[in-house]
Model the fold of this input.
Amino acid sequence: MKLFLRLSAICLLSSVLCLLVRAAEPADLGQGLTYLRINSLTKSAVDLNAALLRPAALVLDLRYPADEPAVADLLRVLNSQPAKPTLYVLVSPATPAAVAGILGPTSTRLVTLGVKDSHPAAQVVVEQTAAADRAAYAALESGTSLTQLISGKIEKERFDEATLVHEFKNGNHDAHPPEAGSAPGKEIPPTITDRVLQRAVHLHHALLALKR
Done:
């Protein structure tokens, strides 16, 4: 029985470790774009070097890294790599000040994206709360795939002239936009979407379209 419990614990630990490794390794987002999440500057140094050496666009996620003493190495790595087509850097209000400080001095051209009050101030500000941003970031390590995290749609209230005409034709002569939170039908569980990462992907697609 004890042997069985030990084997079960080892299997569980291995599964968790594999999940964390997959979250830290570079991932293909399609159309020549790669995603690299930095949880630890020290442990991710090799992956970061390799990703920067590839002549392809890269999303570098620095929203919640640790190991501030390794910041000097990060600046050296960024400055020693050849120019990339595009480097998108994701930041957040929780990005350590020491990490944020290296993005300004670096000679590498990059675009920073993040929610309001990110460090450093994001060039592209995404409308999402810091709490929702953190939850979306954590969802990847909880098993949600990158595809799911970036495929969510931004829901916008749509009640235009065409909608009014449709309502009138169906006999509703007192049609008006629904009040917030009063959508008909049963409630649908909210989809976790990483808006910051999603915006980086959309920006990459837009730049590719402009080049065409």
About this structure: The two ends are 64 Å apart (CA to CA). The chain is about 45% helix and 10% strand.
